[in-house]
Write a structure and sequence with these properties.
Layout (H helix, E strand, L loop, with lengths): L7 E6 L3 H12 L1 H8 L3 E7 L3 H8 L4 E3 L2 H5 L6 E4 L6 H11 L3 E4 L2 H18 L3 E2 L10 H8 L5 E7 L2 H13 L3 H10 L8 H4 L2 H15 L9 E2 L7 H9 L2 E12 L2 E12 L11 E8 L3 E8 L3 H18 L30 E11 L4 H11 L4 E6 L8 E8 L2 E2 H13 L3 E10 L4
Parallel strand pairs: 1-2, 1-4, 2-3, 4-5, 5-6, 8-10, 10-17
Antiparallel strand pairs: 7-9, 7-11, 9-10, 11-12, 13-15, 13-16, 13-17, 14-15
Helix pairs in contact: 1-13, 2-13, 5-6, 6-11, 8-9, 14-15
Length: 440
């Protein structure tokens, strides 16, 4: 098989962690990959500004260049793999490769979340494909599951732990009782968190991935700019402990849900019942829960980052592209699962309009009538209480914590109630509010 078949020539842009892993796995499993693809897949040229690193990784097994644009217009290259990252030069390289009739494989979630609409339209016009399994959750084949495996289903919602850095930090805060700052410092020391962790801890990376999954699940255009994003920096260990007492774990979730009013697209710390499998995903692992009308809930779990897990997804895309090189463009799996002329612009709901349940923590004076005042305000805003803890004050302590879980309500109702509760003379400081999802 495949001996007489011309190899597929790949131009690899960027030979850092994922690029190096891709080179290594492709070399190690070359025979198996060729058996699956129907012809050999080989890296013909590597572009990286660090030529010494490129030499070291490739061991002189292919051509090297410091100019990535020399690869995107190289007539010998069939597929360009973009592993540079960022949204500046990477966008120009992807569009240049497409303009030159080359297929593109990328692991760049920021590029697709921000510029995917333009990139996919360009690929569609040129009759080439852009494959991006590695852009979401590293080695977990979640894009393929959504685009192909679940294609019979009307997807109802997706909820995912899709950032390993924040999940590691939350696991440490839960397991060791650390503050956010202490858990972050430890994650940086162990190499789980970057020196500048903003993209991760503020939820931006998770929002890029949630945007991509939302578009594929609902046949929507990429709408990253409309996503609601809240990170974990302000999360207090005391809320992790109270949540545990009530039978919940707190995770940073990327959530997208279809509703009659529009699509929810949000990233924030979320209480999840401790008995759910996804609540028990620890450390730097990723997990995505997808609810389809026919299949019910399905869970995808694995390593969301790292050299070889991400390389696994890059190479799966290379094999897919190799298999369909001979297929007419209209017979390929569409980029966003739905045919290009069926992509719609569903409205993304503002956060005030989402419907979910809530965790509220209030610091109050320990005296009669306080609870009645608070429950009256909640009732005025059509909010009913599902569970409650009132911490016993210590001796000589004049204040205590009240923790409430609400039934489902619209966020603007909670906002209105919190505004009134905070004005009560018996309530000290701000009310802490976290969202809660049962994920049934």
């Amino acid at each position: 098989m495949g001996r007489e078949m011309k190899p597929i020539n790949v131009g690899l842009l960027g030979v850092g962690t994922v690029g190096g892993g891709t080179f290594k796995v492709l070399e190690r499993n070359a025979d198996e990959i060729a058996r699956r693809a129907g012809r050999p897949i080989r890296i013909d040229v590597v572009a990286d500004t660090n030529l010494d690193l490129a030499k070291k990784v490739t061991g002189g097994a292919c051509r090297l260049t410091g100019d990535a644009f020399a690869v995107t217009c190289d007539p010998d290259v069939d597929i360009v793999v973009e592993l540079i990252g960022g949204t500046g030069v990477a966008k120009n390289l992807a569009l240049d490769a497409i303009a030159n009739g080359k297929h593109v494989v990328t692991a760049n979630k920021a590029l697709l979340a921000r510029h995917g609409n333009e990139i996919f339209a360009a690929a569609q016009r040129r009759g080439v494909t852009v494959a991006f399994e590695a852009a979401v959750c590293g080695g977990i084949p979640i894009i393929k599951a959504l685009r192909e495996g679940l294609t019979a289903n009307r997807i109802e919602w997706i909820a995912g732990i899709i950032n390993g850095t924040t999940n590691h930090i939350l696991s440490e805060m839960y397991g060791k009782g650390l503050s956010f700052d202490a858990a972050l410092s430890e994650a940086q020391r162990l190499g789980y968190a970057e020196a500048d962790p903003t993209f991760d801890v503020e939820g931006i990376d998770a929002a890029h991935k949630a945007t991509i999954m939302s578009a594929i699940a609902f046949g929507n255009s990429m709408r990253f700019d409309e996503a609601y994003i809240e990170g974990i920096r302000r999360l207090d260990p005391v809320d992790i402990r109270y949540a545990e007492k009530l039978g919940y774990r707190i995770k940073l979730l990327g959530i997208t849900r279809r509703t009659p009013q529009g699509v929810e697209l949000r990233v924030h710390p979320t209480l999840i019942p401790a008995k759910r499998l996804i609540a028990n995903v620890e450390g730097a692992m990723n997990a995505v829960l997808v609810k389809g009308d026919a299949v019910g809930a399905t869970l995808y779990y694995g390593k969301g980052a790292g050299a070889e897990p991400t390389a696994s997804a890059v190479i799966a895309d290379l094999v897919d592209v190799a298999r369909m090189l001979t297929a007419d463009p209209e017979h390929r799996v569409p980029h966003l699962a739905f045919q290009p002329d069926a992509i719609v612009d569903l409205p993304i709901l503002p956060i005030a309009e989402i419907v979910t349940s809530y965790y509220l923590r209030m610091r109050v004076e320990d005296r009669p009538g306080v609870l009645a005042d608070i429950t009256r305000i909640l009732a005025d805003h059509q909010i009913s209480i599902d569970a409650m803890i009132q911490r016993e004050p210590e001796e000589n302590e004049a204040q205590t914590d009240i923790i409430m879980l609400t039934h489902q309500t619209r966020e603007k109702n909670i906002d209105g109630a919190i505004g009134r509760i905070e004005k009560l003379p018996v309530v000290t400081g701000d009310v802490t509010r976290l969202r809660l999802e049962e994920l049934l």
